[in-house]
Amino acid sequence: MTSILIAGVATAWLQEASTQGIDIGTRNDPTKIAASAKILQQDLKSFHNTTFEIAFLHPGDASKWKKFVSVLRSRKWDCVSLGGGVRTIPELGDYFTDLVREVVREQPGARLIFPLLPEDAGPAIRKYLPQAS
After folding, report:
1. DSSP secondary structure, the chain, as one string
2. Based on the structure, what is the number of domains in the chain?
3. Source organism's superkingdom (predicted)?
4. pTM here?
5. Can you give the CATH number for the domain in which 97 is found?
């Protein structure tokens, strides 16, 4: 059984950030991300012998960070997907670096993928983890 952790910035965080004047970019519009996530949910149904867990990231929230680390440590992940919002919003550069470091430290054998939108995760998984198909 292949285990894949898909992590992305929560739409609630994106909405809050945009109201605080953070330029989240048009790609990370919460409505667009929510629609893309629905496409991902449908796509994940096509995988066999694969377990998925979704983690929503809330940059700047220490309790949510601890929850993410707990999920990261909860099992051996074959692949960890870190969504585009966390690496395309300039203010999240340090947070993205911390995420990558934590994944490499806790899951050194996991493949890392970096889809731009949630709907890009399925094709990336198929490309870099063909056994998951």
Report:
1. -EEEEEEEE-HHHHHHHHHTT----GGG-HHHHHHHHHHHHHHHTT-SSEEEEEEEE-TT-HHHHHHHHHHHHSS--SEEEE-THHHHSGGGHHHHHHHHHHHHHH-TTPEEE--SSGGGHHHHHHHH-GGG-
2. 1
3. Eukaryota
4. 0.95
5. 3.40.50
Q: How many CB atoms lie within 10 A of CB 37?
A: 19
Across the chain, which has 133 residues, the per-10-residue mean pLDDT values are 96 96 93 95 95 96 97 98 93 96 98 96 95 84
Q: Mind listing the pLDDT tens digit for each residue in 14-27?
A: 999 999 999 999 99
Identity of residue 113: I
Place of tokens 């063909």: 130
Q: Per the structure block, which two tokens stand in for 99?
A: 């995420």
* Domain of residue 48, residue span: 2-132
Residue 2 tokens read as 């292949």
Q: How far is CA 3 from CA 25, 27, 129, in A?
A: 31, 28, 11
